[in-house]
What we know:
Elements: H1 3-9, E1 46-50, E2 53-56, H2 61-73, H3 80-106, H4 113-124, H5 130-139, H6 144-165, H7 173-182, E3 188-189, E4 192-200, H8 207-226, H9 231-238, E5 249-254, H10 260-266, E6 278-280, E7 283-293, E8 296-297, H11 300-330, E9 333-335
Antiparallel strand pairs: 1-2, 1-9, 3-8, 4-5, 4-7, 6-7
Amino acid sequence: xxxxxxxxxLFFLLLPLCWAVGTVSSAWAHGGHDHGxxxxxxxxxxxxxxNETDIxxxxxxxxxxxxxxxxxxxxxxxxxxxxxxxxxKLLQDQINRHLLLKKAxxxxxxxxxxxxDEEINAVKKRFSSEREFLKELELxxxxxxQYQQELKEDILIDAVFRRELGEGIKITxxxxxxxxKKNSLQFSSAEQRRASVILIKVDPKAGSAGDRxxxxxxxxxxxxxxxxxxxxxxxxxHSQDSIAKRGGDLxxxxxxxxxxxxxxxxxxxxxxxxxxxxxxxxxxQILKVTGKKAGKKGTLESERKNIRKLLMDREIKNKSHPYLxxxxxxxxxxxxx
Length: 337
């Protein structure tokens, strides 16, 4: 599995695959909260022409909308001038992407549906269930077919970079050993748990009555769970946590990354077990442990292949900018805004 692709497509671990393209795939780009926020600038329907192909406004508008929402939600709304800068950056990314996909076509590079399925199955493993994976797609306003197409294009672009830029790169054993010595901690990890949470907040102004009401509400939810209710669905329906829309999923974490009571329970319970109700500063909570990863201590030999690829990726990234510039010089590019 190409880790570059996974990191590009998962919304909590994103490093771009197409280094020179520069933007995270829209598949998992942060969408923010939808309060009807839209870009205020006006753009033509056709933003640019690359050789004989139109680059349309529709190709960047979703990404621009997400950018505008993200900054608005942070309390720093973009000016029209800043929106235009963001739009130009997204357009340049689309031009680069078009050129790279055209290059892949000219080189006869193909991607089988089996390869795309293999990559998607690897992504699904990062979620507690396929249902949660599909829910995440829904939240990002993507169909599975759209996601598959983006992933296919990412694989094609990755193949172009590797064939065009990777063949002349030689990574020596000494380089690998030096990297491991300087970064040995990078290849070791503590034991991890994955958990989901349901939170019912306590109104501080309501005194003991508010405290009792919150606990009783969560007790009802816990009763439904004990009768076979789906934790993720109940979290989406009732949890007052910001991650409720993800079924309360917190992802994987080490014991030292969570506050005391929560971490203690998460590392005490078995996978699939649900805790009893516990009180935190946030309110009353229950959690379900959904996954477990053993800790590991990497060795030079166990990590040699990964380090070789990491160093190769770094070298390709360094070469990618001049490579893209050369592609652009050969193309007839007209920009209309």
